[in-house]
Amino acid sequence: MRLLVLEGAGLAIPDSVIASIEPGSRIGPGADRGAPWLADLVHGQKLTPTPTSSSEPVRRTLQLQGGGAVEVPATMHIVDHVELLELSNLLRPHDASGAILGVIELPEGLSLVCDPRRLLAQGAPDR
Amino acid sequence: MTTSTQPGSIALMPVALGGHHVAVDALTVLEILGPREWVPIPHTPPLLRGALAWRGRAVGVFDLGPALRAPALEPPHTRSRNAVLRVGEDTLVMSVDRVLEVRAVESHAIKPVHATRWLVERGMPCRGELEFDGDVIPVLNLEAWASLHRSGR
């Protein structure tokens, strides 16, 4: 499995669901409001990062296969041939969207693997 | 883990968490792990906090801390001991401070919940309670907890 790991977010996305990676919106005063922040969608609450300067490019936009887009941290890397640890039955049905696909073990720690398209289908939290 | 018991007796494994002791059926214990890394999973009930990696699967991390009014587990590290438990057809990991020696007790020594009713009222079903080293400790009913959990979806 090939995954895009979003550094510092504890999240990874299957490479197969990503159509393209584009510059994201800038945050801060007067910033435009782009696609939903992925961590907000995953956790169902607003976790959007606080800007450290008005023009800091901390985001990128992932255009998704089949339409839709999410914003993610700008720092990311690809991992190949990583084993997806499936959620046990007790955990799985609590994710109503089915967007949490499992967990991966990386040198930097455990990360959730999610499918942003399913999160978008479920709807964004209040922004 | 293998535990032999006499007819009419039950093997219990006491664990310590936040100054409290609780007991679980020792026959459900698959393995005791040291500290591990875990990851929170959103939209889980309070006692089921997230997952850790165990034998190629992501198994649920069960945190009794809030029910015992002990500090909740904080990512990324578990407490110092993790009991991997078979619950029905599933597996979960109960993260605790210490695991004590398994002991066989007579079934009739497990009394209906009375002194430890507060734990049931905080959402943790118990099979009963037991005198343990001068204290009365609850015997958890994780099967019932899992059933509640599943039916509550």
From TrEMBL, chain B:
InterPro entries linked: CheW (IPR039315), CheW-like_dom_sf (IPR036061), CheW-lke_dom (IPR002545)
Record-linked Gene3D superfamilies: CheA-289, Domain 4 (2.40.50.180), SH3 Domains (2.30.30.40)
Domain CheW-like as annotated: residue spans: 9-151
One Gene Ontology term from the biological process aspect of the record: chemotaxis
Organism superkingdom: Bacteria
SUPFAM superfamilies: CheW-like
Pfam families for the chain: CheW (PF01584)
Any one GO cellular component localisation term in the record: cytosol
Stated name of the protein: CheW-like domain-containing protein
Species of origin: Enhygromyxa salina
